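R.M. (postdoc): so does anyone remember the format we settled on? I'll just put the structure tokens first.
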């Protein structure tokens, strides 16, 4: 198992030695390495069992540091950064020559994000290189929202987990592509589409997911999935097909009286999508450990973070 702690200097020393460190962010935990070092970055791919075609997001502490990571940064990037960074937003920009091809998977673009978690911001300010970091889970599985989640699955592969508590948002960053002529959204996430559109003063095109096309990295239809089968629909209707002991339930704000309490997770009693986002991944992980056959779940309102929740539920159920 990895050591858990809040020692920034220890984390920084390991990263300088090209070791991996798991880091807290407000979205999900990341598995970080020196973004300028091939030797360090390759360890991320092997620890996660991640295919080389899936590029990594580069994390930095300030907009001023973008110049070390990206080139030809358009004005709209600064406009979005001003409004939302640090925060749950990743911008895809033209990559600078010093970014290893491993990080970009050979594309000429790079994802950049300034995370808002104080421990990780502090860590980044102590380093003279940015951190490449995907979510700290085995490839294809649900992202971790606590240090314990990371330790359970990757603890034997990393020396240190910076423990920043439970993630405040709980769903991965929203990814916006700025290398095409048109602003487009590649992944719905922890920053609501409505907020971005309000700042830009126009609606944004959304790129569809694909079941196989590796040219559209991170857009796989089946992803973010627990090992148990997930079925998405009307929970009351789906329940008719199973015995009570066979099912786990993730509902938005309903409980079911004929199903044992330990087999149910209600995402938000008050019916708030932000609260539901915070609880979603822990709910999937919890039910994945229960002696049940199937996880039954339902869509939440398609507004704000509800869009990202529904995206993850669809991919978990695909
Ligand atoms: O909230 C987050 O974004 C978390 C935290 C740790 O920052 N990170 C995260 O990383 O979710 P990851 O690797 O699990 O997902 C990042 C997605 C991947 O699906 C990847 O394909 C996409 O971002 N991506 C990264 N660089 C890209 C690029 N240059 N072009 C298109 N997509 C890119
Ligand atoms: Mg991921």
């Amino acid at each position: 198992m990895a050591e858990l702690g809040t020692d920034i200097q220890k984390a920084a020393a390991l990263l300088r030695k090209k070791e991996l460190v798991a880091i807290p962010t407000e979205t999900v935990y990341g598995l970080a390495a020196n973004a300028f070092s091939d030797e360090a970055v390759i360890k991320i791919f092997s620890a996660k069992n991640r295919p080389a075609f899936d590029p990594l997001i580069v994390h930095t502490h300030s907009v001023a540091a973008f110049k070390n990571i990206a080139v030809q940064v358009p004005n709209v990037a600064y406009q979005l950064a001003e409004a939302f960074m640090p925060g749950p937003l990743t911008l895809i920009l033209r990559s600078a020559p010093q970014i290893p091809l491993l990080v970009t998977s050979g594309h000429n673009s790079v994802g950049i994000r300034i995370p808002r978690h104080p421990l990780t911001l502090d860590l980044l300010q102590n380093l003279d290189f940015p951190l490449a970091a995907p979510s700290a889970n085995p490839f294809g599985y649900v992202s971790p929202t606590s240090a314990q989640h990371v330790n359970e699955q990757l603890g034997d592969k990393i020396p240190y987990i910076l423990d920043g508590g439970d993630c405040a948002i709980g769903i991965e960053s929203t990814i916006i592509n700025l290398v095409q002529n048109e602003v487009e959204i590649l992944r719905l996430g922890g920053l609501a589409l409505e907020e971005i559109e309000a700042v830009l003063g126009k609606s944004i095109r959304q790129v569809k997911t694909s079941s196989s096309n590796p040219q559209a990295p991170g857009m796989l239809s089946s992803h973010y999935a627990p090992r148990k089968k997930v079925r998405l629909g009307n929970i009351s209707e789906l329940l008719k097909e199973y015995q009570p002991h066979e099912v786990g339930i993730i509902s938005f704000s309903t409980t079911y009286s004929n199903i044992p309490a330990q087999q149910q997770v209600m995402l938000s009693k008050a019916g708030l999508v932000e609260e539901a986002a915070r609880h979603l991944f822990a709910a999937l992980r919890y039910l994945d450990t229960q002696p049940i056959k199937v996880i039954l779940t339902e869509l939440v309102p398609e507004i704000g973070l509800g869009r990202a929740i529904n995206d993850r539920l669809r991919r978990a159920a695909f």
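R.M.: ...and that's the designed sequence above, right after the tokens. Also worth knowing: The chain has a mean pLDDT of 95. The two ends are 32 Å apart (CA to CA).
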